[in-house]
Design brief:
The chain is of the alpha+beta class. Helix content is 55%, strand content 8%. Residues 89-212 form the GST C-terminal domain.
C-alpha cells in the first residue's frame, strides 16, 4: 500500500487530495513538524531536505520501492502512473505545468515566507514583512486573473494544478491574506472545497494533529 508521510500543512494536503481523487488506498503517517519530527535522524534518512510530504510507493520500477519527495513531483508521478488529472494533449499539459511551476516558484514561497515573518520570526522585520506579504497578495492577484478566464486554474477541467494551489488557499490565514479582492479565487475555492475527495483528504490530514 502507498504510504504518505505528512502533517496538517499546505503541501502535505496535496497528496491525500490526489489519492482520494484517484480512488487509491494509502496509509497516512504523521510527521509532527510542530515538534520537529521532520528533523529527526530517522526522517532525514528518508528525506534529507527535512520536509513533508513524502510518498513511498512499494511498487516502484524494477520491483523496488520508490521514495519521492516534493509535492509537485509527487502529484505528477501519481497522475502519470494512474492516468488521472493530467490530460495527454500537449497544450493542456503545458498549462498545468505552467501553474505547477508558478506555484512552486512564486505563490507557495511567498505565502510561506509571509507567514513566517508575520508569525514566527524572532523579532519583527518590517522590510521582510512588507516584501513577502506584498508578494503573497500579488501572487493571489495573478491567480485571480487566471481564474477570471477559466473554471479551473489550467482550463475547464480539475487537475493536479488545482490541487497544488489549493493547499495554500486552505491555509491562507497563515500568510494573512483573504479573498476580498479575489472573487474568482473565492469562487474556485468554494468549488474545490466542496469536492468529496477534498473533504475526505482534509479530514484525514486534520486527524494527524494530536488533540490537546
Amino acid at each position: 500500500m502507498l504510504q504518505v508521510l505528512a502533517f496538517a500543512t499546505p503541501n502535505s494536503l496535496k497528496v491525500p487530495i490526489a489519492l482520494e481523487e484517484m480512488g487509491l488506498e494509502y496509509e497516512l503517517r504523521a510527521i509532527n513538524v510542530r515538534q520537529g519530527e521532520q528533523k529527526s535522524p530517522e526522517f532525514i534518512a528518508i528525506n534529507p531536505n527535512a520536509r513533508v510530504p513524502v510518498l513511498i510507493d512499494p511498487e516502484g520500477a524494477n520491483g523496488q520501492p520508490l521514495v519521492l519527495t516534493e509535492s509537485a513531483a509527487i502529484l505528477v508521478y501519481l497522475a502519470e502512473k494512474h492516468g488521472r488529472l493530467l490530460p495527454a494533449d500537449a497544450e493542456t499539459r503545458a498549462r498545468i505545468f505552467e501553474q505547477l511551476f508558478f506555484h512552486a516558484s512564486t505563490l507557495g514561497p511567498a505565502f510561506g515566507h509571509a507567514g513566517f515573518f508575520l508569525k514566527h520570526a524572532p523579532e519583527p522585520l518590517p522590510v521582510a514583512i512588507a516584501r513577502f506579504h506584498g508578494e503573497a497578495r500579488r501572487a493571489l492577484s495573478v491567480l485571480n486573473g487566471v481564474l477570471a478566464r477559466s473554471e479551473f486554474v489550467a482550463g475547464h477541467e480539475f487537475s493536479i494544478a488545482d490541487i497544488a494551489h489549493f493547499g495554500w488557499m486552505w491555509r491562507r490565514e497563515f500568510a494573512d491574506v483573504d479573498f476580498s479582492a479575489s472573487p474568482h479565487v473565492q469562487r474556485w475555492h468554494e468549488t474545490v472545497s466542496a469536492r468529496p475527495a477534498v473533504i475526505r483528504a482534509i479530514e484525514r490530514v486534520n486527524a494527524l494533529v494530536p488533540q490537546a
